[in-house]
Amino acid sequence: MLVPMVVSLRFFILCSFFSLIISSSIAHTSFKPKALVLPLIKDVSSSTPQYIIQINQRTPLVPVKLTLDLGGGYLWVNCEDGYTSSTSKPARCGSAQCSLFGLYGCSGDKVCGHSASNTVTGLSTYGDIHEDVVSVQSTNGNNPGRVVSVPNFLFICGSNSLQNGLASGVKGMAGLGRTKVSLPSQFSSAFSFKRKFAICLSSSTGTNGVIFFGEGPYNLNIDVSKVLTFTPLITNHVNTISGFLGEPSVEYFIGVKSIRVSGKRVPLNNTLLSIHKNGFGGTKISTVNPYTVLETTIYKAVADAFVKAVGAQKVAPMAPFGTCFATKDIGFSRMGPDVPSIDLILQNKEVVWNIIGANSMVQFNDVICLGFVDAGSNPSTSKVGFVKVNPYTVLETTIYKAEVEAFVKAVGAQKVALVAPFGTCFATKDIGFSRMGPDVPSIDLVLQNKEVVWNTIGANSMVQLNDVICLGFVDAGSNPSTSKVGFVKVGCTQ
Question: Where is the signal peptide (predicted)?
Fold first, then answer.
């Protein structure tokens, strides 16, 4: 389920990491800080609000703004827009640097590459892996310390097209996920502190948040690490994103046991709150999802309980929200809209994520809506976070039908009953598999000319659901606003 990360300054995420050695990332100083600190701002200038950090990178150093992605696996930076540095070096195929990214591809000049994803828009492209200097501020938890640098910080070179959709001035994305090349992992390896980070997210553009990497204290006038409520982070061992199926998820999940509205428990099918063995279900936290996204039955139960507790008449919905009221019917206080609180009960009834009106409501002039979104009956997971993306490729009906007919003919296997939202499915036993994923015909998007092609292989085009595997393209009807290309993984083994 998605619970908004637009929570108050007292909300922290603390994460510890597995043991890891990255020999390529060695601190460029004899001084070994115990922690690093980066300011964090909320940017609402684009159509999708984003949390922004700034690092210094390259030689000479240049400030680089990045959109924060809690569940992202790596740092990517636009290298097409004036990237100049005397210390930037490509990673060579077969090197230890390349292997840290797991699955990677090799170009003709023996430079390794990997997919880079804009998780705000859902676009993914292939980029070369590079290393360069990254400089950040150290801290003792109370005061800023000296600036320290990592001379060989690994990142993926993105493109102008990949940058589209990010906030103004932002040149890439910074991932904090469970990988060997995320920011927390590279910083902790470089400076030999624990693989731990803490995020304080601001709920407004008027005040800054902060990220700490390493040990506490985490001091915001008081040592907040001593007054936090803790809940374990859960690993989802099966990724549900097309192209990454079967791999462990690099994202962060929490264990929600039940939900209360205005202190009363909401009747739910609690099995939907747990991660299933196929990787679906559970509750993911995210900084690139603006609203709380819930499976249909959970959404309806929570919305019904919320409307009853509010006691006001609903008005016409404002997409994507389905539960809205007239602003004049809702009171306001210093804590924001005076509406019932929504509680997520975590590992036990003493550990509660309390969501007040300032975090749960979205106002549109004279209408105010519950900022929860119905994700349908088959979402991969409920999410706690900040921006909805299109996970699959969505096509206008005639384009979809033409492509599907050609694809089925090329596959040469019998179709089976569809699995929504997909209309073209096969028995898994009828589809071969290779190191590159499902052995199906590739689909090429020919871009500005026939020499520029987006090649979609089986690892990117197919979605497996137990004994059924489907083409991950969706029929959007005859009048969609546009065709959309969803999240794609690109890459190959050497």
Answer: none
Backbone angles phi, psi at 281, to 5 degrees: 90, -175
The domain made up of 12-224 is a member of CATH 2.40.70.10: yes
pLDDT digits (tens, 9 = 90+) for 340-370: 999 999 988 889 999 999 889 999 889 999 9
- Partners of residue 348 on adjacent β-strands: none
Q: Are 386 and 68 in contact (CB under 8 A)?
A: no
**Exposure of 318 by Cβ count < 10 A (0-12 exposed, 13-18 middle, 19+ buried)?**
middle
| Superfamily of the domain at 233-384 | Acid Proteases (2.40.70.10)
Query: What whole-number distance in Å separates Cα of residue 84 and Cα of residue 72?
Result: 25
Average pLDDT over residues 72-76: 97
Tokens of 274: 């747990």
In the block, residue with structure tokens 């019904």: 304
Residue among 25, 24, 73 nearest 491 (CA): 73
**Would you say residue 5 has pLDDT above 50?**
no
**Which token pair is 483?**
């065709």
Residue-range domain boundaries for the chain: 12-224, 233-384, 393-475
CA-nearest of 198, 195, 183, 180 to 76 is: 183
CATH ID of 393-475, from 1.20.1290.10, 1.10.760.10, 2.40.70.10, 3.90.110.10: 2.40.70.10
pTM recorded for the entire structure: 0.71
